[in-house]
Amino acid sequence: MIKISDFGLIKKTNSQLTSIQTEFKGSFNDPALITDGFQSYNILHETYALTRVVSFVLTGKTNLNNIQDNILKKFINKGLSSNKAERFQSVDELLQAITQL
C-alpha cells in the first residue's frame, strides 16, 4: 500500500500507518471540523479533503478562487461546498467525478 496523504483523522489502532498522537494539522482538512468536532467526523470530511488534494494535483494551486475551467470549477464547488448535502457523498461518487475531468 502506498500512502499519498494523511489527513490525521482516522486512527486505526492496529495500523502502522497512523498514530493516535497525531494532531489536527494541514490546510486541506475540512474547516467545519473545528466546529463539528471529531466526534461527528464522517465521510463528507474525507471527501472535502480529497477534493482539495485532487484540485491541488490538477492545478498546483491552493487558492482555488480563480479557476477558469468550468468543469473543474463545478467539481471544486461540489467537493468543497459548505452545505454538506451538496458534497460528494462517497469516495465512489468522487472518483466518478474525477473521471469526468
Cα(first) to Cα(last) distance is: 26 Å
Q: What's the mean pLDDT score?
A: 83
Computed Rg: 14 Å
Q: From the helix content, strand content and strand pairing, which structural class follows?
A: mainly alpha
The biggest beta sheet reads: none
Characterize the quaternary organization of these chains.
single chain
Q: Helix-strand pattern, N to C?
A: HHHH
From the spread of the alpha carbons, the general shape counts as globular
Number of strands: 0
- Percentage of residues assigned to helices: 40-55%
Organism: Fundicoccus ignavus
InterPro entries: Kinase-like_dom_sf (IPR011009)
Protein name: Protein kinase domain-containing protein
Give descriptors for this structure.
4 helices, 101 residues, mainly alpha
Structure report:
The protein has helices at residues 32-36, 43-59, 70-79, 91-99. By secondary structure, the chain is an all-alpha fold. It has a domain at 32-99. It is globular and about 40 Å long. The two termini are 26 Å apart. This is Protein kinase domain-containing protein. It comes from Fundicoccus ignavus.
